[in-house]
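Late entry, written up from scratch paper. The run itself happened at the end of the previous shift, but nothing got recorded in the book at the time, so transcribing now.
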Amino acid sequence: MQELLFLMPRRPPRSAPLPNPFEPLEGPIAEVVDLHGYRGDEARMRVVSVLTSFHRRNRGELVHIITGKGRRSIGAPVLRSRIKTVLQAELGAIIKAFGTDLDEGGWLVRLKMR
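Output as recorded:
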């Protein structure tokens, strides 16, 4: 039996779309920080560490922080509100904008440029 091989024409590579300067939370995500399984203080330290080091290397990038919705938390969800406080208070100097992601299970963070 003969195998037929069909070759698809190659498409030229697409360049990444430029972020809309009027919508700071749109554009390609440069880094993802998944905090599933972290406790409150561990998550705070991880976010502070990752965002400050990433800001030093790549200014102006978009970072996705995944906290989850807290459905498996005992009592009320912890990470979502804790990370919001960290973004507002501790990291406010390096953050241009932040807001919830589409399913409200995390945060989108646009780092400032110098």
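The first helix runs from residue 40 to 57.
(Scratch paper discarded after transcription.)
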